């Protein structure tokens, strides 16, 4: 054994067959969702746009008929419709088209919503920055101590896109002050992280563990964070408010339209457990390997597979979000902002459940302090995963909604 290979025994590589099976499963999920989106949504949207065009033509013909003094019976003969068919055509309309005056209305608690989406973008950027550093060889995955510093750098750099995203959303929802958004993005997630780490550090201190971080080091990290992350978040929020407001293809009505009740399969109590399984299942194998490497004193080194799994996860969440949002709009429900976020975040439910299962049946910890530390860390991971997937879902749904309403003309 040479000096350069002395730690290879602790590296968590695993069998390539398992990783490729997981990637194949994710690709299969994407293929199924793509078929649903490509066939069902494509056919449905084409049918909807034809109906919208037909309705517009009939209304123009009706106006011209009235201007020329023709009767409704003459109009029906000219269009080839009987009186019953004409009446049916007049009353029929595409449900999601009727929501054009409400679909871009600001959601409830817009400031909290914008903050959550901004933090979700921050988590996504952190993961991609960290994965890129490992793949490029900038960080040696043997040195766990340096991982903390790399994570701190990624957290600071990702504060800028978080501030931009949250500020642009708040401006889209009608806010005029960027300071409140900057403060929320700057302090909410980092404060949550430091609180979790301080709780773990206190538990380790009571247990007289060698892993305890001195309080002076914690204060030093907080000062560094204040000098790096906070200015970037404030600059990002200020930049986001200076950018032009997102243009919407339709105007928001002054009076809110009453939403129709959703069918059972689209309600959050049913949809979140169903789609959460799909989202978490797409990364299950890689998540299990990461858990084993962290909690069994091994080193995870499959960053290529992790990068591919992340890209597949983004695609799966985006496809599921588009499908659910379209079905909700087609059912006459215009409040899609929070629904889209919750559908994307639903995978964190199963991540939390599996984390508890893994602790009970795989780790079999003897000390209560160890179990508490494990649960605190996994709570942090699950909430971060929920925010990240929720933000991916919201962005995907917004792009989809904007596209379909850009193809119709407001009336």
Characterize the structure shown.
This protein has one domain (96-406). It has a two-stranded parallel ribbon with strand order 1-2. With 411 residues, it is mostly helical. The chain starts with 10 loop residues before the first strand and ends in a 5-residue tail after the last helix. It has helices spanning 16-68, 72-79, 83-91, 95-98, 110-136, 144-157, 159-172, 179-206, 215-242, 268-281, 284-295, 303-330, 337-345, 347-363, 368-406, and strands at residues 11-12, 299-300. The protein has 15 helices and two strands.
Helix run count: 15
Could you estimate the helical fraction of the residues in percent? over 70%
* End-to-end distance: 76 Å
Strand order of the largest sheet: 1-2
Strand content: under 5%
The number of distinct β-strands equals 2
- Rounded mean pLDDT score: 80
Give the SSE order as H and E letters.
EHHHHHHHHHHHEHHHH
* Number of structural units classed as domains: 1
Largest sheet: 2 strands, parallel
> What is the radius of gyration computed over CA atoms, rounded to a whole number of angstroms?
26 Å
Shape verdict = globular
User: Which consecutive residue ranges, at least 5 long each, have pLDDT under 50?
Assistant: 3-13, 81-92
Q: Which class do the helix and strand fractions yield?
A: mainly alpha
């Amino acid at each position: 054994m040479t000096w350069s290979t002395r730690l290879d025994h602790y590296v968590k590589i695993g069998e390539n067959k398992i990783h490729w099976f997981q990637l194949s499963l994710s690709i299969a999920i994407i293929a199924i969702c793509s078929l649903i989106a490509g066939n069902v949504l494509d056919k449905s949207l084409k049918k909807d746009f034809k109906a919208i065009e037909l309705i517009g033509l009939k209304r123009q013909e009706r106006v011209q008929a009235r201007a020329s003094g023709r009767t409704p019976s003459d109009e029906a003969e000219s269009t080839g419709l009987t009186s019953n068919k004409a009446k049916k055509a007049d009353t029929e309309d595409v449900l999601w088209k009727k929501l054009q005056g409400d679909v871009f209305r600001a959601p409830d608690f817009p400031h909290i919503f914008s903050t959550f989406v901004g933090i979700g973008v921050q988590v996504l950027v952190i993961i991609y920055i960290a994965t890129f550093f490992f793949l490029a060889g900038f960080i040696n995955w043997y040195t766990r101590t340096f991982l903390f510093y790399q994570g701190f750098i990624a957290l600071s750099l990702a504060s800028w896109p978080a501030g931009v995203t949250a500020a642009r959303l708040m401006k889209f929802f009608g806010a005029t002050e960027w300071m409140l958004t900057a403060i929320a993005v700057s302090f909410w997630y980092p404060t949550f992280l430091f609180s979790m780490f301080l709780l773990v550090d206190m538990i380790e201190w009571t247990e007289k563990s060698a892993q305890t971080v001195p309080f002076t080091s914690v204060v030093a990290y907080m000062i560094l964070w204040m000098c790096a992350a906070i200015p970037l978040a404030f600059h990002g929020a200020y930049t986001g408010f200076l950018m032009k407001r997102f243009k919407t293809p339709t105007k928001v009505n002054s009076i809110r339209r009453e939403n129709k009740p959703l069918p059972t399969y689209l309600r959050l109590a049913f949809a979140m457990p169903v789609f959460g399984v799909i989202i978490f299942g797409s990364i299950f194998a890689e998540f299990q390997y990461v858990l084993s490497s962290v909690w069994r004193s091994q080193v995870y080194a499959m960053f290529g597979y992790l990068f591919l799994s992340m890209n597949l996860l983004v695609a799966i969440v985006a496809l599921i979000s588009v499908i659910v949002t379209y079905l909700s709009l087609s059912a006459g429900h215009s409040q899609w902002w929070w629904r889209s976020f919750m559908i994307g975040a639903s995978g964190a439910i199963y991540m939390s459940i599996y984390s508890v299962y893994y602790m009970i049946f795989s780790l079999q910890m003897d000390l209560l302090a160890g179990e508490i530390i494990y649960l605190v860390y996994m709570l942090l991971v699950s909430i971060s995963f929920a925010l990240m997937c929720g933000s991916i879902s919201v962005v995907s749904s917004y792009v989809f909604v904007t596209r379909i309403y850009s193809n119709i003309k407001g009336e």
